[in-house]
């Protein structure tokens, strides 16, 4: 069947080449294929056809260079690729490049074949690029696996027959373009092919040196099943990597037959007996004759056989059954804490201590373990609490050699079987039996339970059943070992790759790899009982295969003949003891994480710390919608800040940035704190968790939208790794849906394809700030890309991490240039003046009494402290109110064009709000605070006061608030009425001043607040007269009068925009600082004259 399939694929491949040709243009191929570079000094970089400078910066043309080309379904992230890259860097020095064409290799094989020549042309061009830059082809080594082998053959040949020094190719694919086969032998000066399979790998031997591994290069003893390196084909690159440090010696065909019973057929076999010792792989002596060579492999890593079978003396320790029963201890734990050893002779003790009507649990450990192994006591305690009855621990700790232990299986298993029969004979019900086994112990419980009676005991849970040597022994018995059988899989090296239980739960990365794995005994295999023990109290939820792919980038393969129930259509369920065993049989999945309790609950481990404008903080979850709505107004802005690797809310820059956003944008600022994951010291592990972390941010955006918050008001900020989180989350939330996104030096390593097409569309407006190209990306893929310092590469402020070139980005971004450019000039009653900054509280407190009044004056466009009215007004405030008067001088911006000044509104306003907060924090009472603003400064006062706190400040007097650029929809206009407890607006013009009336008290001066008869020339036109009127009103009465008097005096008709109270019914009052603030809200009028002081009595 396999041979027929290969012939079929070969026919299809030729047809595809003849009829379809290339799918993309060459430019598209070059854009989609990446060459990742790794230098011997530890640097890594991305090289394309345009960045020769980068290539020459990291790589010396006089040194070696190596190119690795992966196969179908693979990428740079394939495990063997990373391992081989490291091996080549160590062995050859120079630069190692990985050609990643995964954008094509993830497609079906037929589609990949149709792209062969387009991909090959890119590799050929890369070789020519090296040549043009002075790299010597005699220093080149190309390595290809499977489909990648043919890419190497053809690319090297097209570069120049036998031009490069060497090509090593691992199990070239059987299905390929035949032209590459004809060119293989001439692809390099030396060409070695390593063969490990005859189904996916070719059966032809067309290279200079053909090394046939294992069973004549047709199959491997270690071969198991997909999807990992567990079929003969995929064993090849693993064996090649191991050959760097382990000898895969060449042997004769007679040796192969003696070891494997395979008879190898070859017409070009080389007689190695005349050549001396030889090894396969990178260390092969390439000066030996061309032809076929042979090397043996074995089932266990590192897969090489040092001695021939005829030289091995297998030592087994075989004893009689009685000896095994004596050496195996059944340690029994009761629910009341009593322990005893249960033997085959102390039935009375067993019956006395363990009630025959209650449950019996038996725990069986693995190789090199015992009752003193770390996980055992916890598991015993969990079983005792969860099931009651007695828990029996089978302790058989004697043997250190795993193979010897395997030979003893036939003697150990019957001891467990006898214990089960003893219990039944004493009256214990097998339906109440629960067996647990780990690794080798899993096979003991399978076989013993099955021999006790097919599906007789109640339940059996097996943790990562051992793989080595257990391929046939129990595979037909696991399914029937108990009524309910669950297997939990965590590895395929020490654990089995077979899925032979009723319920098979693949943990972590498809039951192959675990993020929590470290060195043995807590590798991928050894973590299984820790996960299982944790699952008693923590949910390891069953998820879909697609969920696993999103979270880990691992595409899990369904075991042959096993169904895959759709858990998305079932009630939530979990792995482990608490699994619902009524679920259909089949293959299930559950995610794991790096740290205890190991369950991958991303949402539970990520905190959204939310900061309001009034200083309140709370954690926003996915269930406390009421709190969110109560604390954050749905009509206001939402800002989300996402940190980078190793950072958290306690990182230095975060609080400052949150404060800046709060002041500048208002609304709520949400800090996404994923320190649970970012604290990982290995960046790559954090990268693998990206598909799990990113959806949590997407869900938060969707939650906010569902609650009524407007995405146009969303502002996302991300630094480094966090930049990619906001890119991808913003895009997945909706293309160009978020209002704005700022990204600070997006991380470069590992982030080359993941979001490359999404940054531009992650929000309506996207700005990227670049400060480095080592940890930061060298790509400029945002709408606006700002390169700081030396071309976005180096920064003068950089020091040691975390404040290197990369880490300085959020500090630059957070630094408030507005604060540096705005001066707060403080005046005391005795006219002592000083400048108040945000980092000098002492001077402010030394000169201004927090118990007294304070006044803030904010000028307008084109003005400063030197304008005609400020100093006189300052004097008036000092005389009337005492305390300190603070003049906010933002001339650095007000001297600019009006449109430019308006663009700076938020930044300037944020500084004013921060000054109010500084005063508040120092003990100045907002009830003693008065703010005056003129024109543009009126709006600064409105919004600055509102963001400080709605109606928190005692009073704001605004003089002719600017009209241009401040329509009714402007945020400052909407907030004006609530910007202070008392808000008075004095209106003098309708050209530069607003025609709207939105304050609590609106005083229309002169001709209905439209023009003034006292107007002369700038700056004393109708608009500019307002602060003069206000200043004069400290000592001259601008009485409020009936509207009729205005209309009669000036022969005009005034149209009210709001209610106009009848002033004849009120106590006499006047415009300005002496206004009676208790009068009703509404629109009022005051007459003005032609000459100073401009009031008319």
Automatic annotation (TrEMBL):
Superkingdom field: Eukaryota
Entry-linked Gene3D superfamilies: alpha/beta hydrolase
Biological process terms in GO annotation: lipid catabolic process
Any Gene Ontology CC annotation: extracellular space
Lipase domain residues: 35-199, 328-494, 625-775, 846-992
Signal peptide start and end residues: 1-21
Ranges annotated as spanning the membrane: 305-324
One Pfam family from the record: Lipase
Molecular function GO labels: lipase activity; serine hydrolase activity
Cellular location(s): Secreted
Keyword terms: Membrane, Secreted, Signal, Transmembrane, Transmembrane helix
Family indicated by similarity: Belongs to the AB hydrolase superfamily. Lipase family.
PANTHER family: AGAP010328-PA, LIPASE
Record protein name field: CSON008641 protein
Gene: CSON008641
